Amino acid sequence: MTSATPFLLPVLLVAGVWFVAVLDGALADRAAGYGSGARRALSRTGREAARLLVAQRRTTLAADGLLRWAGVLALIVAAVLAAGVVPLGWEAPADLSVGVVWFNAMEVVAWAAVWLVGWGPNSALSLTGGYRFVAQGLSYELPHMFAIITAALGAGSLRMSDIVDAQADVWFAVWMPAAFAAYLLSATAMAFWGPFDAPVGRDVAGGAAGELSGVDRLLFEGGRRLLLVAAAAVAVPLFLGGGHGPWLPAWAWVLVKTLAVLALLVWVRHRLPVLRMDRWSEVSWIVLLPLTMLQALAVALVVLARGGGGQ
Amino acid sequence: MDLTRALLRYAAHAPHVLLVPVPGAAGLRMEVEHAVASRRWREATGPADTDVLIVVGRPGHEMRAVIAEVWRRVPAPRLRIDLDPHARPADVSRRLDQVPDLLADPQRGHREAESAATRHEETTAAGDGNVEDGDHNARSGHSEHQAEDPGAGHTEHAGHHGHEQPHGPAEHGEHGDTGHTELAEQAGHTEHTGHDHHAHHHVAMPLPGGLAMADVAEDRDGLALDVLNLPLGPVLPDWPAGLVLDVVLQGDVISSAEARVLDAPRATREDTAGGGVVRDLDVVARVLSVAGWPGPAARARSLRERVRAGAPREEVAGELTALARRVRRSRTLRLMLVGLGRTQRTDVADLLRRHLSRIEAYAGGQPTEASDEPAGLAVRDLGSRLAGAELAAARLLVAALDPRVPDTAEAGRTEGVGR
To answer: How many domains does chain B have?
Structure first.
């Protein structure tokens, strides 16, 4: 497995994207009251991809094609690179000593990516979508950073595999629940998914993605789901014990846990209306941010009490 | 190519549909929404996401021009369907059943791709100098779109579009398989769209694409901020038929707005939309959809169709109550809507609650009084209600206020109603 992981990663990510798309389509039909057969749900994703493959690419007047391409590609590249630090089993394709920081740096690329895609078409509603995402970033990023730093603090390391090792007995999700919850919320917001999809909302006619057609749209939508998969996958080593678990081998536990997190995120999307930042940022800054800071403080005290602070 | 053929055929069963409702055809619009949803097809967010454009009702002069503009922005393979206002559910169903075969036809797709690339140049050549609103600065949202033809930007100035021209008129009769060729031919005459802006007006200012720079004006805090004049609508998801909001935007705050309805005088009065609970469900569905809660919105629409189809009250009462309860109980929705529009003398949450109460009253068998029906706002009063609102808030306000486009019996007395 070890030598194959770098090649396995893209395959697994695409499989994750497919899983998200299928589940999402099925839940959408179910929520609408039109039950969805399993076969229909399975084929729908392929059909949606096929329709974008055969569709013409159109663009707008005085559009900046370079920005649009840069944005779409950055989204995909950032998602793949972010997922690179996730241990598939015990070994990550790239087990960096600063894995947590690397992941955080890659996902921030999404800010630029969505902004560029929104800016590119020279369209007011697209641009609105773009800056909605930046506003969203200002709301989710700080709680997000405190959440992942709390996990690193608990393990005393920024390396993903060290964080996994520290959870051999107890998952971090168990004794840092606030950080875990904040992470899940911010992971959703980062992929502008679920209740945080105002940047590509229907009310602004698709927002940042509104003027994309054909392959452009396919790549953008794919990149967005890649980002979601990457964020869900990183939750596993950070909070859910990575490959630790009975009976199954480590890699199987990572897959099962990742799919479970993904299923949760997709399910939540259909439970909640969109969270607009003009209302949500208040909650984010007044409730979530202090909560994650307190969580970090509590974890720091526990680590000190265990004598893990001054190694 | 066989691969393309196979992909076309495979993709044709999951089309995205863009509905363009024409004022005065609310009943037909509901019928089509239902027909699309029950096939599990998705509604498109905009022209770029569209495979099938459905014009619901017979558009007048102004709507025709807008629809031609929108059609130009739809990527091939594409299909246009024009539905007569008197189309029966069976007609709608028959037309939609033909969609996959038509979309999967590779020859059609090829012709559409060519005509999509050509249409742009015709329009620019013919529409020269016919821009109604010359003061629209910094065009963007709905400005000119063109196919990825590197030469396109130049041909529009020089006017030597001859090499592509022959494809144009010959194609028009084909698309949509509708026989309404006269609609398609309108593409060349975009007098009143308010969406077109031509490079010719700004020859002296060589800016990208011939677009003007934005002006600067004081915003609500007294700071100098760019001003963007933007027409919102009439083709937006979950938007009242034919409504155009000419907004002045600073950032995403609307500093002033003016509402108008395209083809208002032509709108027919006869409307099968029905009143009472059907309309309540329609408004609730629209507000929920704009609020980004597609599940309950779709549920409200499907219940609306069952009521419209004459389902007895007892049969739908349980589901109506369940829907109303679910929407009422959502804390998230309350957090997002409560007090929204207060500075605009409105409250979206309150308007939604009133519609929900009426739905519950209907489900419970209590008489709903016509007098406490939240009266839709007259279109002419809409603009003043939106000043100071952010774009997202404005969308919710428009959905909740349900401006009365003159397509109902109230058409004659919209003046001065404004409550």
So the answer is: 3
Name the residue with tokens 């949803």: B37
Q: Quick one: pLDDT at residue B184? A: 35
Write out chain A residues lying below 8 Å of B49, CB-based: 206, 210, 213, 217
Residue B30 lies in a domain: yes
Of B14, B238, B392, the CB nearest to A47: B14
> What angle separates helix B89-97 from helix B26-38, to the nearest 10 degrees?
40
Q: How many CB pairs under 8 A join A and B?
A: 187
Q: Which two tokens stand for residue B45?
A: 């967010």
Give the pLDDT band (50/70/90) at residue B110.
confident
A14 Cα distance to chain centroid: 14
- Using the predicted structure, report yes or no on whether residue B112 has a pLDDT greater than 80: no
Q: Domain range holding B302? A: 276-413
What is the maximum span of chain B, computed from C-alpha positions, in angstroms? 69
Q: How far is CA A189 from CA A195, A207, B141, in A?
A: 8, 15, 25
In a domain, B201, yes or no: no
Q: Rounded distance, CA B339 to CA B332, Å?
A: 14
Closest CA to A106 of A127, A86, A82: A82
Contact A46 B10 (CB under 8 A): yes
* Pair B171, B146 in one domain: yes
Closest CA to A73 of A22, A114, A44: A114
CA distance A227 to chain B (A): 21
Give dist(CA B77, CA B105) in Å, integer.
9
Q: What is the DSSP letter of B367?
A: P
One domain for residues B327 and B382 = yes
Please report the DSSP string for A232-287 in residue order: HHHHHHHHS-TT--SSS-HHHHHHHHHHHHHHHHHHHHTTS----HHHHHHHIIII
Report, as an integer, the average pLDDT of B265-287: 71
Asked, as a colleague might, if the bond just before A121 is cis with ω within 30 of 0, I would say: no
Q: How far apart are CA A169 and CA A186, in angstroms?
A: 26
| Residue ranges for chain A with pLDDT beneath 50 | 1, 310-311
What's the pLDDT score for residue A103? 92
Residues B160 and B283 both lie in one domain: no
Tell me whether residue B271 is in a domain.
no
Nearest residue of B to residue A65 by CA position?
A: B148
One domain for residues B33 and B162: yes
Report yes or no on B8 lying in a domain.
yes
Same domain, B339 and B305: yes
Distance from CA of B168 to the nearest CA of A (A): 18
Report ipTM for this prediction: 0.89
pLDDT confidence tier of residue B268, bands split at 50, 70 and 90 = very low
Under 8 Å CB-to-CB from B396, ≥6 apart: which residues? Answer: A203, B287, B290, B291, B337, B340, B341, B348
pLDDT (average), residues B287-294: 92
From chain B residues 184-243, the ones with a CB under 8 A of any chain A CB are 208-211, 228, 230, 236-238
Q: Does B98 touch chain A (CB under 8 A)?
A: no
- Contact by Cβ (8 Å): A268, A196: no
> Tens of pLDDT along B327-377?
999 988 988 888 887 777 778 888 888 888 888 888 887 776 655 555 567
Shortest distance, CA A98 to any CA of chain B (angstroms): 37
